[in-house]
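Dear support,

I submitted the protein below through the web form. The confirmation email said the job was done, but the results page showed an empty box. After a refresh the structure appeared. I'm attaching both so you can tell me whether what I see now is the final result or a partial one.
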Amino acid sequence: MSKIKVLIIDDSSVIRSIVREIIESDPLLEVVGEAQDPFVARDQIKKLNPDVLTLDVEMPKMDGITFLSNLMRLRPMPVVMLSTLTTKGADITLEALELGAVDFIAKPSFELLLENRMAFKETLIDKVKSAVIVDQKSYQLSSAIAKSIEGGTLAFSGCKRANHVIAIGASTGGTDAIKSVVRMMPINCPPIVVTQHIPPKFSERFAQRLNGNCAVTVQEAKHGQKMKEGNVYIAPGDKHLKVAAKSGSLFCTLEDTEPVNRHKPAVDVLFYSLEPIANNVQAVLLTGMGQDGAHGMLALKKSGARTLIQDKASSLIWGMPGSAYAIDAHTHEASLNDVAKELLSFAKLSRDEMKEALHG
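What the results page shows now:
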């Protein structure tokens, strides 16, 4: 098997050296070149024909967004963004994902990198390998998603059941996929809780950007917050999000505990927390790398929840939904463009109609 060829684009020679050492530690990867700015990178791409790029979001001479936009227009290829853990870095990265970048990894400070080198190493290698699998599908799906959300919100007559809740889990490709679903939701939709694998500052900016493009209210979840219809609650990037039922209402709860499935927030934590009210839950797994959420979804299915996975054709990476499929954790499967419609159609059913829809 030929090695995966990687081109590193970063203006910092220190970061380039670290990334090179990490990538070349894996026998399936090789660094074919380095570039300190997009102009050098452009020539390197033509000369070296890499399979994947790692791209710093903030670059000299030409910013990363301009370079990525040109690249996706002229020669779409897998790109993993290296992002600073700042508000500016978060905004640029989220825009890059909308343009067709496959994924991103938060670039830690030099001090944090020394402390958490192994975790950074594992994550970077995983993301580079996954990017190759995605290939040009990233840009194509991004364009399709943009078209799918042009139609606005869907009509909804209202939910016939109190405290019906929609729970969504996603990872790689999830920011665009979640946007596609949430953009279609009307202001009287059931409350929606979301766990997306994303760092702290990124989760806050993701919620804010999404809120500016939707009819519903999107916010980063707060501990003890009462859940209301027409609201979407995004898990903070450094806390697990759970749902608790108290005194006839639902509340967001946040936990600062250990990562689960290497993730914090973790989808499984959210899904397992919903077991006590499973017969009033719709759990959704969208595109994402790994298997987080699959076993929690299976538990919810066994407890009476409606469980929906995104199909393979519309997923950037069919890891999380595919893992759920493999253990038969889903009751339904749908293309990304149909997920919002599916959720609302089920949400308007009475309890008896819901049982019939689930069990025939």
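Response: this is the final, complete result; the empty box was a page-load delay. The chain has 14 helices and 14 strands.
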